[in-house]
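Researcher: Watch the backbone:
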Amino acid sequence: MEQKIEKFVEKAKQAKSPEEIEAAAKECGLELTEEKLAKLKEALYGKKGELTDGELADEMLDAVAGGKSVIITNILYEDQNHGGMV
């Protein structure tokens, strides 16, 4: 599972649209909940589904030092302490 997530993180960082995030998850064999997909899309592309004029979504600003990898990984693992993941 760890390799799937690492592969997904790399692909998601390169995604140019919210749709590419969903496609990357499927390509990597991850079945993400609609809630997780929505969080990933909003964190990386904002509420409108796209970044404009270099704006960053609030969650991305909070984790800018670690970049997109930190954001994606945090969202994927946020339920791990509650018995779930992805």
